[in-house]
Amino acid sequence: MGNEMVFELNEPLDMHLHLRDADMLKLVGPLTSKTFSGALIMPNLVPPVTTKEALLAYKERIKEACKDDNFEPFVTLFFKNDYSYEFLEDIKNDIIGIKLYPAGITTNSETGVSSMNVENLRPTLESMSKLGIPLCIHGETNGFVMDREKEFMPIYESLAVAFPDLKIIMEHITTKEAIELLDKYDNLYATVTLHHLLITLDDVAGGMLAPHLFCKPIAKRPEDRTALLNAALKAHPKLMFGSDSAPHPKHKKECCGCAAGVFTSPIALQVLVELFEKHNCLDKLNAFVSTNAKKIYDLNLTNKTIKLIKKDFVVPAIYEYKNENVVPMYAGETISWSIESIN
Ligand code: NCD
Ligand code: ZN
């Protein structure tokens, strides 16, 4: 007693989050809103969020699901290459950015863009650039699964060059090549997940298959993980925490044809503290989970302080609400930090 180790985080932000809808939203929403000040919410619903009506209604449903907490949902629009300037000008103040998916690359992205050719994207990107709307990209090609992100690097480069005033965020980066690109173009930024700082493909498929660690982009090689971790541990100013927590019901993960997505919301902050403590970099964690994103997206948030304590936390085997359920990363395992209080 008395000499417990504690650590405080101020206004933690999750800059890449899937909250889904209906009962799943009611289940997972509070698991983020309790401990985070805000989150950038992905638009890959069925159907995807492409109109102002759908966007505002979704934001209201999120606020309702998270109403017990001091939490700001930053919603995004699903990219289409034919949004008019007038439409974007009108919706600009309701969104934090627009998320671009190559068609069919991941969950609910069938109506994404069919060609990443700059000319194909130009109409919408020119308007976004003029209006100052950031572009978030799922950067993978249709190539061999381990090479998809690396093969996408020239596309990021061509976009960064063609639209120098457009803020481009490389979402959930998983490779050392993406880290290298970050320093090459002023207008390129990135998010990185918790699980990609921790696991490699070995953890997914090196032994018994681990469906709850299967996600897009797939976890890569040890040298990739090292590059990501080094950038996160020094709180590289162009890198933000984005969990990509992507809940799927248990029966869609533990089956033939496992859905992609790792559910990390309820353990994210505790495990981040554990990881940064292990590497003696706790002094950088607040920048990585909060101030970097505040600067990049120019965010103002009300005060919220999360106090964590070095005390064992047994991760629940499953989270349930009505007919929905989801298995978290580290289900049933013990992690060494817990949430102590939230103010
Ligand atoms: C995400 C999902 O399930 O919506 N899945 C994932 O594996 N990360 C989509 C995504 O971000 O690719
Ligand atoms: Zn995602």
UniProtKB/TrEMBL annotation:
One GO term (biological process): 'de novo' pyrimidine nucleobase biosynthetic process
Cofactor section: Zn(2+)
Active site residues per record: D244
Record-listed substrate binding positions: H18, L19, R20, N44, H138, H248, A260
InterPro entries: Amidohydro-rel, DHOdimr, Dihydroorotase_CS, Metal_Hydrolase
Pathway: Pyrimidine metabolism; UMP biosynthesis via de novo pathway; (S)-dihydroorotate from bicarbonate: step 3/3
Modification type N6-carboxylysine: residues: K99
Catalysis: reaction(s): (S)-dihydroorotate + H2O = N-carbamoyl-L-aspartate + H(+)
Note on how the cofactor is bound: Binds 2 Zn(2+) ions per subunit.
KW Zinc (keyword) present: yes
Keyword set, alphabetical order: Hydrolase, Metal-binding, Pyrimidine biosynthesis, Zinc
UniProt-recorded Gene Ontology molecular function terms: dihydroorotase activity; zinc ion binding
Function: Catalyzes the reversible cyclization of carbamoyl aspartate to dihydroorotate.
HAMAP family in the cross-refs: PyrC_classII
Family per record: Belongs to the metallo-dependent hydrolases superfamily. DHOase family. Class II DHOase subfamily.
Record-given protein name: Dihydroorotase
Organism the protein comes from: Arcobacter acticola
Taxonomic lineage of the native organism: Bacteria, Pseudomonadati, Campylobacterota, Epsilonproteobacteria, Campylobacterales
